[in-house]
Every structure is written in structure tokens, then in C-alpha cells.
Amino acid sequence: MSRSARPARSVVVAASAAAGTLLLAACSPTTTVMPYAPSDGARVNLTDTVRGLNLLVVSAAEGEPGTILGALANDSAETVEFELAPEGAAPLTVSVPAGETVYLGGGFPEGEGLEALIDEVAAIPGGDLETTLSGAGAQEEFPMPVFDGTLPEYADLVPEAVVGS
């Protein structure tokens, strides 16, 4: 009586396919555990405990004033002095106590937040404004998105141009 090689061949093919799938899965990162900004703004991690969240600027046009929105979070044990320096504008300095979050722009949560205006936005709406965030001995350069009042959620946050400046 002779044995057929077909069942053994099927097992080898199935095992090879399973091994190949496992090998390929091991090579790709699990994207659900990677930090990301699930919003319009940029996330900037200065350290494991000090970061900028959802940072963006709202302006009528390039060269006009802008409102910075977002938050600065400090989960460390000491007060942190953040400096947010958008290209072409005076830097903003914000002190954030240990374990606190300071919201920028007055809209997060509703009615709360530090007014964060810059004198001039050096990028067009729809573009990115090169910005540096520093604090806790760390510094990161990042592109901060620029929005105008086209979207209803930002329409009331566009600062008016200063006449005569």
C-alpha cells in the first residue's frame, strides 16, 4: 500500500503561509500604540512629561495677527516655563505649574484658556508656520498648521487686523 504525498504537501504549504504571515506581521509597527495628534493641530513631545497638544494658529491672511490654539501640558513635578516662538513673531512665554495643563486661545474648554495672540503670521492659511517650542531643557522645531475662518469652529477666533499698524 502506498501513501499519497498530497496531504503532507497541503500541511507544508499551510504552515509556510502561516509562518510568512507571522514574519510579516512582526516587521510592521502596531500603529494603535503610537502617539499622534487626533485633531487639526500639532503634537510636540519635549519630554515624556512635558508637551504641546493640538497647537495651531488662526489668522485672516499671511502677515496678519494670529490666535494660537492648543494646550501646554506639564505632568512633571516642577513648574515649567514654555516658550512658543513662531517664525516672524514675538515669542510667547507661558508658565505651567506641575501637574497642570494650560489651554491657549480661550476656547479649550469653552471659555477657559490663556489669550495667545501673535502680531504677525508668516504663512498663508492652509500652510504651516515654522515654530519652536521649548521648555524643561528641551527644544523642538515643528510645523504649526495655519487656519483661517473658513471652518465654523475657527470663525470667531480670527483676530481682527490692527488699523494703522
Structural write-up:
This protein is of the alpha+beta class and 165 residues long. The protein has a domain at 42-155: PCu(A)C copper chaperone (Immunoglobulin-like, Sandwich), CATH 2.60.40. 16% of the residues lie in helices and 36% in strands. It contains two helices and nine strands. It has helices spanning 6-27, 152-155, and strands at 42-45, 50-59, 66-74, 80-86, 92-96, 100-104, 117-118, 128-135, 138-147. Strands 1, 2, 3, 4, 5, 6, 7, 8 and 9 form a nine-stranded mixed β-sheet that branches. Strand 8 (128-135) and strand 9 (138-147) form a beta hairpin. The radius of gyration is 25 Å and the shape is elongated. The termini are far apart. The relative contact order is 0.19.
List the helices and strands and how they pair.
Layout: H1 6-27, E1 42-45, E2 50-59, E3 66-74, E4 80-86, E5 92-96, E6 100-104, E7 117-118, E8 128-135, E9 138-147, H2 152-155
Parallel strand pairs: 2-9
Antiparallel strand pairs: 1-2, 2-3, 3-6, 3-7, 4-5, 4-8, 8-9
Query: For the report, how would you describe the main beta sheet?
Result: 9 strands, mixed
- Kindly name the structural category: alpha+beta
CATH architecture grouping of the domain at 42-155:
Sandwich
Radius of gyration: 25 Å
Oligomer: single chain
Q: For the record, what CATH class of the domain at 42-155 applies?
A: Mainly Beta
Query: What is the end-to-end distance?
Result: 100 Å
